[in-house]
Amino acid sequence: MGFITPILSASTARAASTTMSLWESMKPPEDISVHGNLIDWLFGYTTYMNIFFFALVCAGLFGFSWFYRASKHPKAYYTYGNKKIHVIVATIIGLSVFIGIDMNITRMSNDDYVGVFANWPTEKENPVKIQALGQQWAWHFRYAGKDNLFNTEDDVVQLNDLRLPIGRKVVIQVLSKDVIHSLYFPNARRKVDAIPGRLTRLWFQPTKAGNWDIACAEMCGTYHYRMKAHLTTYSQEDYAAWLAEAGEKALQENDIENPELFWGWKWQW
Amino acid sequence: MAFFEQHIHSEPKTFLSKYVFSFDHKVIGKQFLWYGILFLGIGGIMALMIRWTLAFPGQAFPVIGNLLFPETGGVVPPDTYAMLFTMHGTIMIFYAITPILIGAFGNFLIPLQIGARDMVFPLLNMLSFWLAFISGVILMASLCIPLGAAAGGWTSYPTLSTLIGSPGAGQTLWTLALFILGISSTMGAVNYITTIIVLRAPGMGYFDMPLAVWGLGLTAILNAIFLPVLGAGLLLLIFDRVFGTTFFLAGAAATSGTGDPILFQHVFWIFGHPEVYILILPAWGITSDLLSFFARKPAFGAKATALAMTSITILSTVVYGHHMYTTQMSPLLTQSFMTLTMTISIPSAIFFANWLGTLWKGSIKFPTPMVFSLGVVFVFGLGGLTGLYLATVTTDLYLHDTYFVVGHFHYTMAASVLLGGYAAIYFWMPKMFGKMLNETLGHIHFWLTFIGLNGVFMGMMIVGYAGMHRRLYNPFVYDFLERLIPLNTFVTYSALLMGVAQFFFVANFIHTVFFKKEKATDNPWEVGTLEWTVPSPAPVYNFKEIPVVKCGPHEFGNPNLTGDRDYQFQTEELV
Amino acid sequence: MNNAIEVNNIEGRKAVSSIGMTVLLVSFAMLFATLLLGYVVFRLTNDVWPPMGLKRIPLTLPTISTFIIGVSSLFFYNFEKAFNRNNLKMMRLQFGLTLLMGVCFMLVQFELWSSMKELGLYVSGGAYPSLFFSLTWIHAAHIVMALISLFFLVPTLSTGFREDRITWVMNVGKFWHFLGLIWLVMYIVMFVY
User: Fold this and answer.
1) I need a labelling partner for A107 at 20 to 30 A (CA). Which of A46, A50, A55, B178 fits?
2) What ipTM was assigned to the predicted interfaces of this complex?
């Protein structure tokens, strides 16, 4: 009996989510960042190349199995595969995979990585600066507040609730309090490990206002799956309004006697 | 070649010396086989529990759920879930696949295929098994202690695996068990390497060895070099847990620590990436051999295959950094690791060219070992190509620690190695136990496993691409993952199918070993390597006379052959 | 039956044994290489060494250890020579001295650990003392293993040269010299620099 109930309930769950087609549900979540499409594009490119080469493998595997089955082709061709032509063909296949896919995607990925993902916004660009602290099992986010300095009493400190403006670069510096976590923005195609004692960082630029999920991607204990935070992206005006309000509230409510509050660090460009 | 000739053993008389503390490499091989299959079963049940939880969160696990988790009414609790995937990974990698391919077939095949009467150090061989046994007992015992077994993932990254993240003895026992297993495997490796160097039959050069021995030998080299690296990491982890050292503690958590948790990741992956090849190399070797045996033609470019394996072995030692892109190493390191990783595709592609070249214009028969070998080519093709996404830094930023990674490494490590292991079991069964496994059941086993595993691992990759990250007790607390419930259910049904398929194997295996009366002939597959020149099952001393090798292992379909044989034994002069 | 490796000629057996031992020593070397790599990483990533105002370990005791282990290697070498010449008296003397030096080395190590505690370096006092304690512990554990393996050679002290013991003497010797070498590297990397 116990075996049947879940099957029934699964079918009801399926009924509930029929609004989305199966094909739709296989795609990554909606992209809300300027450069997320680079990753999607590279993924797609690799996929097409892979499909091409895997089709070749399958053609060989199934085709040869069919055409050279013992009942049809009783006498095998005696060769060690060390003739010149054999060596040339094998080498060409090896090199075409290497040059066709590998070097291509390495080059593209390298360009993306150096040009975009590791090209950190500078002070001049005035990005939104956030400090994030992971702990078992929550994310803390810190905004510099009015004085634009971190770890001061006017800092806005949020628990599991990150709010960002669209159209501005956001730099997040990440640290962990206890074990290794990983700050994961599925909608921005970005993640970075939060490591105790070692500062890591991540940047992206949101393009769409809305509500999204932030997750912890690195196993961090029993309630790893509950280490979920919320990302709200606002238009720039809404963001400014929210930040002003939150700043006021922080000034009133931040307890300067509480050392727990001052987990931040000096911003490192 | 041979440095000396071993004497013929006398038959052991007592039960203990014959079946338990045996020095005979064939008996030790069988012990490892049973050990591996037992753990494969345990790890498989754990996998089903994990899958069940993911597809039907909050539902009792059928049949044995109430027995195992009475306090939750049969539902897998979250802390147990963490233990389950940790132990599943550990058991499958170190206690199932390693014993079956390296322990069982390494022991069984190396002396038989190179024409030796036993391993060069039989005592070391026996100690190696019994240390592995002790290690297995410790690991299983850790499931029964208060606070339970290790729960930090099979990688057990600090600081989660230090006292900060996992109090209780479970993690310590896990570390200890792996350390002991490491000693056991190193002993095995010393034995294999020395045996291959000194005990090859007269006339057998390195390129006259079957490719299976190549694979096993290269594996042994990697084991001997890189297991101590893991050993060092585990020792430091034990010190951190037991003596209060602070190697891996840092930041707010450590009282005065200035350690570095990333150091463990470096050490772990310096070992861990070669480990992937430790697992796959024997399967490659076995597959390369079997494809040639059943295509009835010489292995295409056997020398190139052997050299490709060797170059992969060497390359595997310098690419480990691609496991750590998200820890933000310096961009220079990141780029070099990406480029180095990509070069592995050259030898891999040569492999595939040679495998398909072997099939090309063959006269292919399809008994169970052959279909399993063809399965290896298929799944390893998928596994290898999907590795590209993860070697690429930018796509890895998104895919790291998602189910895409899980799908990918299951394709390479689980699917390929499992199918390769089954191919080996079906193929060498007559030489091990003197009886043939049932072909019909074997084919059913293959197709159900094959369909099941593709469903599982392809499903995992799709789910991962859709953003689901790893090691979640209940992924559906996230809004963006709710749409993946149907896919996860599909993966779980595929896993159940795969689980059911294994019953066909177990029934077949048990029936054949214990109940089947019909004996196999000495050379049922009509293959010319040395182990098929001796009776089935192989006698205690293997070879009455040490054979003299005169040709390579894959001599099939030579047009100069007269008579009704289309193959040549390695002991015969090439016609 | 237990004597499965019965070998026709002594040269073959020596070669086999040294191949096996070499592989084993490569494994051991990798263990220590990893540990030293860890040390070097910590050393290089810290601007100030020793970090956090901890004291440097004085060179005296490690230097004595190095001297002792070097001398013991020499004694073992003499023992091997005496063994091959079947000089029983010399064998006993050199064996006794090797054993004595091995025990002395352990005593000096114990002295080193207690002197480190007196300097305020405790096992749990951060990565710096952790490294020194752990690496010397692991090395000392191997020395203990080597001392135990010395006892397998005790029978030769009454029988003198025996063909079936020759590989034992060789292998214990290799292990002994290997540990001396490792200590020398540790001494230079960890204590001198």
Assistant:
1) A55
2) 0.91
What's the confidence (pLDDT) of residue B2?
Answer: 57
Length of chain B, in residues: 575
Residue B252's pLDDT band (cuts 50, 70, 90):
low
Query: In this structure, is residue B3 part of a structural domain?
Result: no
**Nearest alpha carbon to residue B340 among B325, B322, B323:** B322
Which residues have CB under 8 Å from B11's CB, separation 6+?
B540
Q: For C20, name the nearest residue in chain B, comparing CA atoms only.
A: B194
Under CATH, which number does the domain C2-192 receive? 1.20.120.80
Interface contact B466-A29, CB threshold 8 A? yes
Cα(B330)–Cα(B553) distance, integer angstroms: 48
**DSSP for B24-39?**
-HHHHHHHHHHHHHHH
Confidence of residue B19 (pLDDT cuts 50, 70, 90): confident
Nearest chain B residue to A99 by CA: give it: B346
What total number of domains does chain B contain? Answer: 1
- Contact B327/A195, CB-based, under 8 Å? yes
Residues of A in contact with B65 (CB under 8 A): 2
Question: B392 touching C, CB under 8 A?
Answer: no
CA angle B410/B411/B412 to nearest 5° reads 90
Q: Taking each helix axis as running N to C, give the angle between helix A4-16 and helix B485-510, from 0 to 180 degrees, rounded to the nearest 10.
A: 150
Round to whole Å and give the CA distance between A24 and A19.
10
- The better pLDDT of the pair A257, B532 is held by B532
Band (C8; pLDDT cuts 50, 70, 90): low
Strand order in the sheet with A156-159: A156-159, A138-143, A128-135, A170-176, A200-204
Residue B240 DSSP code: H
d(CA B152, CA A222): 9
Distance from CA of C44 to the nearest CA of B (A): 13
Is the Cβ–Cβ distance between B558 and B568 less than 8 Å?
Answer: yes
Which residue of chain B has the CA closest to C16? B198
Chains touching B, CB cut-off 8 Å, 3+ pairs: A, C
> Does residue B295 lie in a domain region?
yes
Question: Chain-wide mean pLDDT for chain B?
Answer: 91
Q: What is the pLDDT of residues B132-142, one digit of tens each?
A: 999 999 999 99
Is residue B553 a part of any domain in this protein?
Answer: no
- pLDDT tens for B533-575 read 999 889 888 898 889 999 999 999 888 888 888 899 999 888 7
Q: Is pLDDT larger for residue A11 or for residue C46?
A: C46
Which amino acid, one-letter code, is at B25?
H
User: B366 and A6: CB-CB below 8 Å?
Assistant: no
Report chain B residues whose CB lies below 8 A from the CB of C31.
228-229, 231-232
Task: Judge: B120–C28 Cβ closer than 8 Å, yes or no.
Answer: no
In the prediction, which pLDDT does B185 show?
94
Chain C residue nearest residue B270, CA to CA:
C34
Answer whether residue B172 shows pLDDT above 60: yes
- C and A: touch, per 3+ CB pairs < 8 A? no
* H or E, element range at B509: helix B485-510
B262 touches chain C (CB under 8 A): no
- pLDDT computed for residue A10 by the predictor: 44
Between residues 25 and 84 of chain A, which touch chain B (CB distance below 8 Å)? 25-29, 38-39, 42-43, 46, 50, 53-54, 57-58, 60-61, 64-65, 68-70, 73-82
- Alpha-carbon distance A211 to nearest alpha carbon in chain B (angstroms): 10
The CATH number given to whatever domain includes residue B321 is: 1.20.210.10
Query: Which of A58, A101, A197 has the CB atom closest to B251's CB atom?
Result: A197
Q: What is the mean pLDDT of residues C61-90?
A: 91
Q: Where are the domains of chain C?
A: 2-192
Q: Is B395 close to A220, i.e. CB distance below 8 A?
A: no
B203 reaches C (C-beta below 8 A): no
Domain coverage including residue B476 = 28-249+258-533
